[in-house]
Amino acid sequence: MDNLVADMLHTPLFDQAEAVRWRMTDIPWAAIDPAAASADLRRLVREIAFSELTTFSATRRFMVDFADDVDLTQWIAVWFYEETKHPNALLRWLHHLGVGVDDQFVLKGRATAPFMRSRMGTYVTNIISELVASAAYMHLHEQSPEPVLAQIGQHLASDEARHCASFYRFAQRHLERAKAPEAERRDALKVLYMWFQGNELVRHPVNEFFNRNEIPFDFQGVRDRVTRLVGGLIGMEIDGTTDLIAEMRKRGENHEAT
Ligand SMILES: [Fe+2]
Ligand SMILES: [Fe+2]
Asked: How far, in Å, from the CA of 83 to the mean position of ligand 2?
């Protein structure tokens, strides 16, 4: 990049992040209604907070594996800051309800998140998990019987949606500049395929909670959005009926090679 500030994606993405930033001090902690926070809801929030902590290991990996990418690594600093606020907001909500965690809880939660050798694969993994997180928090926002948690859910849902869009921009740029774009598309398809296989959406703590409490959650809608988004990124029309393995093979390698 010759003209760094003009060319970086970080520049508009940072401005956007600043413009929509919510503050921890904006949350009306004193308004938390303990009667509306069941033991099951508190357990769910603890699980979500725990699952948010992997950002630490992911950031470490981004800083090492993408060390030559000035643009992305600067944006990761913004992402890391915002992602650190997420479990913190949830733990504060619990704290106001008399539920505490110790530093071991946080250290355990920081356990290494899986990372791929392929940069495109890493981008697509993050695009998917941000989209899923956003949908889950939006649902929490709409369904939480406790109003302050509903508000936190809304803040987190918008952060995650913006993160999804930001990773998407970096992935698009990566693909535009790729020497072998078909291999990049294949890596994107691999991640999508593995995500379908892993059924992670079904095992997501938010979804398990909704199931336990018989609150309907639109899985299929989230799956369709993920599929369309990844398809749009790699310029393919894909849906639930697409033979992803055949599409990967067309791009030169079998699906076991991640
Ligand atoms: Fe998050
Ligand atoms: Fe996020």
From this structure: 6
